[in-house]
Design a protein that fits this description.
heterodimer, A: Aspartate Aminotransferase, domain 1, two-stranded antiparallel sheet, 44% helix, 15% strand, B: 132 residues, alpha+beta, 3 strands, 45% helix, globular
Chain lengths: 162, 132
């Protein structure tokens, strides 16, 4: 397979009319390597290791279970996907009162960020006959209080579009 | 988003004007935003002077896309095809109450204009290019 990009460590020798590519893997690693990104990655690894991956997982599980519980209480909300223990901290849902874009727009006004659209899963949305869904994602830096704020926000959306 | 704009948009969303289809029609065009599922169809009938006599739209989707369609059908009555071709993005944003929209929602707001123009250009035997 010929190299895709040229220059840097992927070179073994350059002549006037041709060049020899370096051996693998260098042949496919042209240019300056992603040094800053590697250092950043190391910092991220250190940070997460300090918190503890098990602790993070436990927190994620707790938050998503709480979020699903509260979401299912809201009249007109339907949550899609498996139960809390079977997934990470995401909840895709629809609200009958408003389109996902409008839900996201109103929630944004209250400082809450959700994703609206197909979440790179168009065929899945076709399967459920949904034009799109809203999706809330929770991670180690989210709190149960923020789940409550999301729910309050959804009631505000219902009120506005109802 | 200012309250005034919200009321205007919500009003048109909940009580859309000119909903329906026209038969016969001089042109009818339909399109959607695949990324969010907004869909609009616009039917237009012209009078003997080639001005918009009647217009109707069908659609489903977010408040901005549907309200935009509703408002657009109201504004084009009496316009010529050339006048329709002149309507631009800023006109639509003004029509929506001068709101400022991010790049995603702009697509919602402009869908009905895209449908209308595609229909208008199509009637004249021309092809409408969105980046004009």
């Amino acid at each position: 397979m010929p190299p895709f990009l040229g220059g840097g460590d992927m070179i073994k020798r350059v002549y006037l009319h041709e060049f020899k590519a370096n051996d693998l893997p260098h042949k496919f690693e042209a240019g300056t390597p992603a040094i800053a990104e590697a250092v950043g990655f190391g910092a991220a690894v250190d940070y997460l290791s300090a918190v503890g991956m098990d602790a993070i997982h436990a927190h994620e599980q707790e938050i998503i279970a709480y979020a699903l519980e509260r979401l299912e209480e809201v009249p007109g909300v339907k949550v899609y996907g498996p139960s809390a223990e079977q997934k990470g901290g995401v909840a895709a849902f629809s609200l009958d009162a408003a389109h996902p874009h409008d839900v996201a727009q109103v929630l944004d006004r209250y400082g809450i960020a959700v994703r609206a659209g197909h979440h790179c899963a168009m065929p899945l949305h076709d399967r459920f006959n949904l034009p799109a869904t809203s999706r809330a994602s929770f991670y180690l830096y989210n709190t149960p209080d923020e789940v409550d704020q999301l729910i309050e926000g959804l009631y505000k959306v219902k009120k506005m579009f109802g | 988003m200012d309250d005034l704009y919200r009321e205007l948009i919500l009003d048109h969303y909940k009580h859309p004007r000119n909903r329906g289809t026209l038969d016969p029609h001089d042109f009818s065009y339909e399109d959607e935003n695949p990324l969010c599922g907004d869909k609009i169809r616009i039917d237009v009938r012209l009078d003997e002077n080639q001005r918009v006599k009647e217009v109707a739209f069908l659609g489903k989707g977010c408040a901005i896309s549907q309200a935009s369609a509703s408002m657009l059908t109201e504004t084009i009555v009496g316009k010529t095809l050339d006048e329709i071709k002149q309507i631009g993005r800023d006109d639509i944003l003004d029509m929506l109450g001068g709101i400022s929209l991010g790049p995603t929602r702009i697509k919602c707001a402009l869908l009905s204009l895209k449908v209308l123009k595609a229909g208008a250009y199509g009637l004249a035997g021309e092809h409408y290019r969105e980046d004009e």
